[in-house]
Design a protein that fits this description.
This protein is of the alpha/beta class. Helix content is 26%, strand content 22%. The radius of gyration is 31 Å and the shape is elongated. The N terminus is likely disordered. The structure holds one RNA strand.
Length: 564
RNA sequence: UGACCCAUGGUGUAAUUGGCAACACGUCGGAUUUUGGUUCCGCAGAGUCCUGGUUCGAGCCCAGGUGGGUCAGCCA
């Protein structure tokens, strides 16, 4: 192996998993071949936790010249649906990974798996148990007490064989019999106490239809599927750690050479203020707590995509948090940092006023319109300029005017001057207020014609505001999102249901927002920085007649901190 | 009265494999800025869960504790 391919030589820290891979290559295991797999069960949408696994599985393969298969773990026909398969593939591609032609299904191996089970029976390593679930469960013992042996454990091979075939022919009802591996009922590891490897299920399978009446359990499918596909590194999450001896035991019964897949476990992704349980996310959808799997508040990949997250930002985040064996809870603010960093480079800046307040420039001709040329992105001048119309009636943000401003308020106030970004410096001369409600209705200003942007005016003011010409503005609905839960760990509270922590203010819909006219043709998923406010993305609900934007994330707001 | 896994600033990770505990985010200052954004500079913040041991030297090795997690689905 060439030294310069070894990241350790370059002193880049690598995860313990990557170190295993490097060591395995050095030792020439499996002829130095690297082959991983991403094995989702098609029973729900992918979430950001899956992104962590995807980045590892595909990432390691790519980095070390190997391959990564996509394999649907479809061993349980009662839980799985075709609906999910397409979304899973779409999400993986969106994230930036590709399995080429290697799209597999555990159900592809039902035949081989059945043969293997038959083989185990013949070797006296598996038996049919006629007892009901509760009896088998009771005989398993407890973690601190050994199990007891099933009365069917020593049934002769011929009887087991006959029954197993008849189980698959549909002769027996669901739950009436199972096939068990004969390992060790006294093992300190519960997984090894004669685990069930086949059960009778009479549901329609999305790929194999009615062909099978018995289906392999996860433990009897996963390692073998890895083996059939030539997987070298089977990376999964920590809860499968205690399954590893069983994984190895089964592979040992199967293998005929030095090749063997190796299971390595890493920590799951946990994020503050949300949860990853597929079951609970499904409940949120079914109970209408969110609008769907792709609700922009969901931690699903389709939700994050709709929210305006980029694949690059998610990959960056995953890279930042690393892979260890510690059960960590990652701060959502790190994810937000990752999108801001990415969007700062990519998103064109525009003006959008969310809570409009009318400003009238009293010394600007009512019939005059100037096209102000404004840089699309100061971070990247190659993104060019755009023209924004300026006139005597404008909208500014309500927050940008105060009748009685506090100390250090740099925005508009009676007698104060501010710059309108890309246009002129204006001075507030007076304002109109509804005496009943106290609401400011209009602000009257004068502009200084010598301060037009780009014309070299020396005049400096502290504050710069975004604005939109009233006459030219396009209307939009803007949806502001906050965390879905107001508890850091909503699903980790023993005494409280996670629903109790649903944040009632997680969605705020603002109708009647005023945007600069260049935004009129914006299409779903297009991303912008609304200057001074945050990053926004066009929603799928948006039409030319009714623009809808989602706020991905706000800009950092030091003024908000000063106010506190 | 089991087996297995884990423990480093607020959070997430690192520590050239036994040699001055570092990085990112966050926080707090300051500079720059026609975004209170960005960028840049800087401060503070852990002595590595505890007790022993080995060693010239331990975050790292050993022993024993403590705390947390996983496992008793015919789910994955």
């Amino acid at each position: 192996m060439e030294k310069n391919q070894d990241p350790a030589v370059k002193n880049e820290p690598v995860s313990f998993i990557e170190q295993f891979i490097i060591d395995d290559i050095k030792e020439g295991k499996n002829n130095g071949r690297i082959h991983t797999r991403f094995p989702p069960e098609p029973n729900g949408y992918l979430h950001i936790g899956h992104a962590k696994a995807i980045c590892l599985d595909f990432g390691m393969a790519k980095k070390y010249g190997g391959k990564c298969n996509l394999r649907f773990d479809d061993t349980n026909p009662v839980k799985e649906e075709v609906e999910y398969i397409d979304s899973i593939k779409e999400d993986i591609h969106w994230l930036g990974f590709d399995w080429e032609d290697r799209e597999y299904y555990a159900s592809d191996y039902f035949g081989k798996l059945f043969e293997f089970a038959v083989d185990l029976i013949k070797r006296g390593l598996a038996y049919v148990d006629d007892q009901p679930a509760d009896v088998i469960s009771a005989q398993k013992g407890t973690p601190s007490q050994p199990g007891t042996v099933s009365p069917f454990r020593n049934r002769p091979v011929a009887g087991n064989l006959d029954l197993f075939y008849r189980m698959n022919e549909g002769e027996f009802g669901e739950g009436s019999r199972v096939l068990r591996a004969k390992i060790d009922m006294a093992s300190p590891n519960m997984q090894m106490r004669d685990p069930i490897i086949y059960r009778i299920i009479k549901s329609f399978h999305h790929r194999t239809g009615d062909a099978w009446k018995v289906y392999p359990m996860y433990d009897f499918a996963h390692g073998q599927s890895d083996y059939f596909e030539g997987i070298t590194h089977s990376l999964c999450t920590l809860e499968f750690e205690v399954h590893r001896p069983l994984y190895d035991w089964l592979v040992d019964q199967l293998r005929t050479s030095d090749y063997r897949p190796r299971q390595i476990e890493f920590n799951r992704l946990n994020l503050t203020y949300t949860m990853m349980s597929k079951r609970k996310l499904l409940e949120l959808v079914q109970e209408g707590k969110v609008s769907g799997w792709d609700d922009p508040r969901m931690p699903t990949l389709c939700g994050l995509r709709r929210r305006g997250y980029t694949p690059e930002s998610i990959r960056k985040f995953v890279d930042l948090i690393g892979y260890t064996k510690v059960e960590a809870i990652n701060d959502i603010s790190l994810l937000e940092h990752a999108v801001r960093e990415d969007l700062n480079i990519k998103a064109p800046r525009v003006f959008g006023v969310l809570a409009p307040l009318k400003v009238i420039i009293t010394n600007y001709p009512a019939d005059k319109v100037e096209e102000m040329e404004i840089l699309n992105n100061p971070e990247d001048e190659s993104m060019g300029k755009r023209k924004v119309p300026f006139s005597n009636e404008l909208f500014i943000e309500r927050d940008d005017f105060m009748e009685n401003p506090p100390h250090k308020y740099f925005r508009l106030a009676p007698g104060a001057e501010v710059r309108l970004k890309g246009a002129y410096i204006i001075k507030c001369e007076s304002f109109k207020k509804d005496e009943k409600t106290g609401q400011i209705e209009e602000v009257y200003c004068t502009y200084d014609s010598s301060t037009r942007s780009g014309e070299g005016s020396e005049k400096k003011v502290k504050g710069t505001l975004h604005w939109v010409s009233a006459r030219h503005a396009v209307e939009a609905e803007v949806r502001l999102y906050d965390r879905l839960f107001d508890h850091e760990d909503p699903s980790g509270q023993k005494d409280d249901d996670y629903r109790k922590f649903l944040n009632p203010d997680s969605l705020k819909v603002l109708p009647g927002c005023k945007l600069e006219p260049s935004l009129a043709p914006a299409k779903p998923l297009e991303k912008f920085q609304f200057q001074r406010l945050g990053y926004f993305c066009v929603d799928y609900d948006s039409t030319p007649d009714h623009l809808v934007f989602n706020r991905t994330v706000s800009l950092k707001d030091t003024w908000a901190k000063i106010k506190k």
